[in-house]
Amino acid sequence: MPLPRIYHPDTNHELIKRIDLLHPQSTRLWGKMTVSQMLKHCMVPYKGLISDKPVKTKMRLLGRLFFKPMLTNEKPFRKNSPTSAPFLVKEEPEFYEMKKELLEKMVMVHEKGETFFEGKTHPFLGKLTAVEWSNMLYKHLDHHLRQFGV
Question: I need a labelling partner for 56 at 20 to 30 A (CA). Which of 12, 22, 24, 73 fits?
Answer without folding.
Answer: 73
